[in-house]
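Researcher: Please predict.
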Amino acid sequence: MSSSPHLFKMMGLGFTRSMIDKTLEPENKLWRAVVLNAFDDTLINASDRKASLQKINAHNWIIHGSRDYEIVCEWALLDADEMKQHYINALKRRVMYFNKKQIRWSEYHRIYCLLDHDIDPESKKHIRRKLDVLREEIHNTEPVIIYDTILTKI
């Protein structure tokens, strides 16, 4: 199994020991790679919309502890709560962090998704205007790092 050596270094020895097991079956290795990919995604530093949403989706998947997350961890022969705790500890140690632009893109996306709902044309115009203003604000926002521990869904 290969992953970013940077990820293992950032997450620490406990996480690395939990993830590396040479005696796993191929199926378990596959699902472990899915978990590792999510953790890798939380290290994204880019502040563009796509990268920001990828990072935030990975964060939410781990923090929220959805049934999908628990099943993937189970198939990977990992303890879902232990993996989540490793991530929370990384947030507390400021190894994992977000910047203001990334958080703002999450807000933008939440509003953008409202356009998919069956709403009247006037409401859609209002939402589009709001998105235009927000997009301009985001482009003018400096990517200042936020070190506050974010333990909730973004």
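Model: Strands lie at 98-99, 145-146.
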